[in-house]
Write a structure and sequence with these properties.
With 153 residues, this protein is mainly α. It has a domain at 20-108. It has 4 helices and no strands. It has helices at 9-13, 18-57, 62-66, 68-145. Helix 2 (18-57) runs antiparallel to helix 4 (68-145). The model has no long low-confidence stretch (mean pLDDT 84).
């Protein structure tokens, strides 16, 4: 018994048009970049607030005030790790956008090449048809200019 693979509604929305696929992928990449930038800005604001809250909480909590330098170093290291992860995610999103733009450009080149090939084929067909008609006219004239037979009406 075989089971059918159920694909996602996203794939159902896309028809077989490659232009639609690439354009939707480019829009999605731009949206992901905007969201990643917004999350980075939010993280920067929260990072600054967290630093201030750590400074404000040091006198209140003895565990922080005893090892304030260690807490601050760990906090800055965590912020740097988050920054590196954010930069890697942003780089990945830009790479995906670039890949999608190249895919669309390649698809456009393929379409242009197919259109040129179709134009050449159509021109060849028309030329063959013109030659065929010209030959047919010559055979009609050749028959008409020949001797008449008793079966010509």
């Amino acid at each position: 018994m075989t089971t059918q693979h159920k694909h996602t509604p996203y794939l159902d929305q896309l028809d077989d048009d490659p232009h639609t696929f690439w354009e939707s992928r480019i829009r999605a990449c731009r949206w992901m970049i905007a969201k990643t930038l917004a999350l980075g800005a939010l993280a920067a604001v929260l990072g600054a607030l967290g630093q201030r809250w750590l400074e404000d909480g040091a006198p209140l909590l003895p565990i922080i005030s005893q090892n304030y330098g260690l807490w601050q170093t760990a906090y800055v290291a965590a912020l740097l790790l988050i920054l590196l992860l954010w930069a890697a995610a942003l780089r990945q999103k830009f790479g995906l956008l670039h890949n999608s733009q190249q895919g669309l450009a390649t698809q456009l080149r393929i379409d242009e090449q197919n259109a040129r090939r179709e134009e050449r084929l159509q021109a060849n067909r028309e030329r063959r048809e013109a030659v065929r008609q010209e030959r047919a006219e010559h055979t009609i004239y050749a028959k008409a200019s020949g001797r008449s037979s008793k079966f010509d009406y």
